[in-house]
Amino acid sequence: MTSHAPKNSENLIVNGTFDNGLEGWNARQVTWAGGRARFAPNGNLSQTVSLNAPGTVKLRFNVSSYYGIGGVRLSIGGAYCSINRAGQYEVDFTADKGGSVDLILTSQGAYDVDDVEIYFEEAECQRIQLLKNGGFDNGLEGWDYDGEINIVDGQAHLSERSRLIQEIAIKAGTPVLVQYSILTSNPTGASCAILEYGPHWNIGSFPSAWIKGSLTFVAPEGINPTHVHLQFRLRDSPYSTPFFSIWTMLRFGHAPQQQTIWRKSERICGRFIDRPIPINSHPQRSDRGRLCRRVREMYSAATTTTRWIAWSAVPP
Fold first, then answer.
1. DSSP codes joined into one string, the chain
2. Where on the phi/psi map is residue 42: left (φ > 0), alpha (ψ -120 to 50), or beta?
3. Residues 114 and 180 placed together within one structural domain of the fold
4. Does residue 103 lie within any of the structural domains?
5. What's the rounded Cα separation, in Å, for the pair 116 and 12?
6. In this predicted model, what pLDDT tens digit does every residue of 154-182 receive, in sequence order?
7. 261 and 292 part of one domain
8. Backbone angles phi, psi at 287, to 5 degrees
9. Which of 122, 221, 225, 278 has the most crowded CB, counting CB atoms within 10 A?
10. Looking at residues 224-239, what average pLDDT do you find?
11. Cα distance between the two ends of the chain
12. What is the mean pLDDT of the chain?
């Protein structure tokens, strides 16, 4: 006997028509009977299917030669359907998680089963924003932090060994998607972690380029507590970053004429803002003295968002 699958659906059961005997099934007190599975009393027939996510499992099967009751269930959840007559059955089960699931048919009496089909409809996933102020529009509101962190233009700028932490509420078995954008001034590294349950992800980066990324975490069953802490941390940099640097010069251009440019870079909490100062010739000692004094004045008057001011060899 055969049946037709619903349009745009896939039958997850292997050999549900029993054309190939009991291949694909685990059977006890069940035999093959000319294209059907024949249950003796205390029979058990099962098959494992894979579900991509939580959702609805629609089961179809046909019972004939009915001489006693039985039942059908999934290995997850507590739902159970009684087999108490001959005829076609259509049952919906709710799967509260994805993964491997067993379909289990049992008998107390005797009957035949044929045309077993399972179709799966994934539950619609409505995203819920778990973080408060993830865009840092309201400064560091909602975040705890260690180290030196400042907000500039809606961005959280972390110094070395600093970290951002926020407590979020989660549900066991539900995927949590963490999305972020990161930029570093040196090819250093950062990490993201769920502190209570151990996963740590290293986040790579490229200097002066925003990198977008995402990570997925699924809280294990039976977790306690249901509140966890998401952490972003900037690790130590292997590069030397002087607090105050001056008089770095770059010569560039094509021979025979070359041009010398002094370029001021303000590093504001990890972000470079470059401002060129063209000078036609190498500055005289008196000019250098005035520039030094000017830098010291700027440093003295700097706000808390200014980490260091440097002259760097960066072409305009």
1. ----PPTT-----SSTT-TTTTTT-EEEEEEE-SSSEEEEEEEEEEEEEEESSSEEEEEEEEEES--S-EEEEESSSS-EEEE-SSEEEEEEEEESS-EEEEEEEEESS-EEEEEEEEEEEEPP------SSSTT-TTTTTT-EEES-EEEETTEEEEPTT-EEEEEEE--TT-EEEEEEEE-BSSS--EEEEETTT--EEEE--BBTB-EEEEEEEEPPTT-S-SEEEEEEEE---SS---SS-----EEES-TT--EEEEEEEEEETTEEEEEEEE-SSPPPHHHHHHHHHHHHHHHHT--TT--EEEE-----
2. left
3. no
4. yes
5. 10
6. 788 877 778 888 888 887 767 777 877 77
7. yes
8. -65, -45
9. 122
10. 68
11. 77
12. 70
Q: In this structure, are 200 and 256 located in the same domain?
A: no
Report how far residue 180's alpha carbon sits from residue 205's, in angstroms, rounded to the nearest whole number: 12
Q: Is the pLDDT of residue 314 over 90?
A: no
Give the global pTM.
0.42
Residue with token string 């000078």: 279
Give ∠ CA 287-290-291 in degrees, rounded to 5: 85
Which of these, 65, 103, 105, 50, lies nearest to 83 by C-alpha position? 105
Are residues 262 and 312 in contact, defined by beta-carbon separation less than 8 angstroms?
A: no
For the stretch 54-92, pLDDT in tens is 788 899 999 999 999 999 999 987 788 999 999 999 999
- Tokens representing residue 198 in the block: 């151990």
At 202, list the tokens: 């290293």
| 297 compared with 232, residue with greater pLDDT | 232
Name the residue type at position 90. Answer: E
Averaged over 15-41, what is the pLDDT? 96
Which of 135, 118, 148 has its CA nearest to residue 307? 148
Average pLDDT, integer, range 11-16: 95
What is the total count of domains within the chain? 3
β-strand partners of 119: 58
Domain that holds residue 265: 250-311
The pLDDT assigned to 32 comes to 96
Average pLDDT of span 7-15: 81
